[in-house]
Fold Metal-dependent carboxypeptidase.
Amino acid sequence: MTAYDNLMAFQRDTEALAQIAGRLSWDQETMMPRGAADQRSDERAAMEAVLHQRRTDPRIGDWLAQVGQPEDPVAAAQVRHIRRSYERAARVPEKLASDIARLVSRAHVVWAEARADDDFAAFAPVLKEVVALRRAEGEALADGGDTYDALLDDYEPGAKAADLVEMFGALRPRLVALREAVLSKPPMPGLTGSFDEQGQMNLSRLLAKTFGYDMARGRVDKAVHPFSSGSGDDVRITTRTVPLEPFNCLYSTIHEVGHASYEQNIDPAYRLTPLGGGVSMGVHESQSRIFENQLGRSRAFCGWLYGQMRDTFGPDIGVSTEEDFYRAVNRVQNGYIRTEADELQYNLHVLLRFDLERALISGDLAVDDLETAWNDRFEADFGFAVDRPAHGVLQDVHWSAGLFGYFPTYSLGNVYAGCLYAALRKAVPDLDEGLARGDTSAATGWLRENLQRHGGLYSPRAVIERAAGQAPSEGPLLDYLEEKFSGLYGL
């Protein structure tokens, strides 16, 4: 066997173990008994220690030195990912990696209980520990550079906070102006009544299949916070049900199917290799957001979904025409929850978190002051006060999981989706005809061929440029939002 063969064989085993570690996290979110939390914390820490040992194994350095820079583009991409992972992992002490895994498993349980009790003070002590350990990890990774950039690089390789600040700064004025114009208009109609939770789950599974999710290689379960997990032949998604708010369930499902389809559609030859997963969280989010918003909330698709809603829940759902249903799906209204926000206001929720978490990591904001800082910023951005912690600082799982640097990829994904959708409309001029029949294959097929199948072959920016035919910019997203909501609200 050549050095490259040895390197890839070793890497496949590491990737397989990482998938098992991911399954432990999936189980903790969905099925694990509550009393198993402490044991699961130790299990995840042990698995992380094993993975860290493999990722820093000195043989990787030897194999990389022998391999050099392969001429084959696929081999070169594999080596690029492995070298990057090896160099980053080598900077983080094994004990620190294990301590973080153990802590975030415990922190998740504390967060879930604090959220249920609306008690930020109960969560603050463990959050301080998480911030401290992740800051230490960031400092080790940065090696004298910017700590937050080092953490961001875990989720969006090559991205810099300064560039995102500039991009998001360009987003904010037009978003705020459009939001104010829309909210000055009479409110749109909404659904009324209670929607059976089993009916929601049945319709969720139908929607998953409609958007191309392979149920033979996946499953749909319920969790507090919807997510997608896994890759290749085992990609699982979760959603949540609220009897009075069926769109929460249905559009969470479509969103997670966007993530899952990306993973399922990657070239099978890349399975259990560094190329076998989504290249970044921003690119991942572009798939979930274009599925959920540009496709799932389009006028054409809403016409089909209206019929499915009536078939599932009966004719009395609070709206009596396809157009009113479309308006209900896309109505803009004040709300506290990021995951329930309309697509016009969603990015304002993300930008709040991006600014706060950078301040936490830099030390400019103390955890004890976080709740007040959140509430002040929220009222300034949205014009009304947070009523309770579960609707504010405790609503998201990310900080309990130590995912600092993750939040900005949500808005970056929206920007990418805007660019991709502009290209998709040009490539598939009869797109709406299929969506009106509940046929998403033209859109999902275009995304599969132009982006998803490549997995990690190209850099995040490169894969977007190849598919969209332009460098990522906020312009197409803003143009799409202004055209859509100006039409809806008669601006």
